[in-house]
Each structure stands twice: as C-alpha cells, then as structure tokens.
Amino acid sequence: MLILATMLTITQDLVDQIVAHARKDHPDEACGVVAGPEGSDRPERFVPMLNAAMSPTFYEFDSGDLLKLYRELDDRDEEPVVIYHSHTATEAYPSRTDISYANEPGAHYVLVSTADTDGGGEFQFRSFRIVEGVVTEEEVTIVAAY
Description:
The protein has three helices and seven strands; from the N terminus they run βαββαβαβββ.
C-alpha cells in the first residue's frame, strides 16, 4: 500500500516560477513538472512543458517531450515530485479529465488558477494527491529554501 505525505513543502522560488509560467501562457493552460531526487518528496528542478493542446480548457504534454523528460529523470535519478498545470477560467481544483489522466500516484498535483487575475485578483495555488481517482487536497507549506 502506498503511504503518501499529506503536505507539499515547496520553495518560494519554485512557486514563483510555476505562477510566472501560468501567467505567461494565459489564456491557455500552462503545464510542467518539478523534479526531485527519487524517493525524497522534495521538489527541486523546475521543468516547464509545452501544452501541446494549446487550449484554455485542457492541457496535454507533448508525447515526445514527455518521453525525453522521463529519460532525463531516469538518467538523473529523479522523479516527478510535482505535476502542475493552470486553470484559466475555473478554480484550482482537478477536473474529471485531470483526475482521469493522473497516473503518478506519488506526485503532488498542483493547480494554479488564473481565472480571477485579470482584475488583479490573487492566483489560487493548491496541491492535491490523486490516487485511483480519489482526490485529496493537501496543505502547502512555502519555505525560503531547503
């Protein structure tokens, strides 16, 4: 049985990079990964990805980019600690599609909502565990450094 931490600890720098990527790609959804040492549950290396769908309502990793990423992770003894994407018109909560595509049971699924930012609103930054279709929101602790 997989036992998962119910809290994401992430640096302010990584949060800023994820939010900046979401802001840059808006009105399309942004997506990417934050890699970390295998088994550490510590996100360290920001890897922005191209949303191959180029859509404001859906994201999809390019299959070639994804294959390259997983080879790189394997070579560096890393794993995807955080898988992130943005929602441009809805709250930062996994959609049915997000849940159906969640295939990394050990990852933190971070969602950033850019829905209210046109009027100067704050970005929503939330993290979830998604295992076998079950969504569990978790606390996010933002630290200066590890």
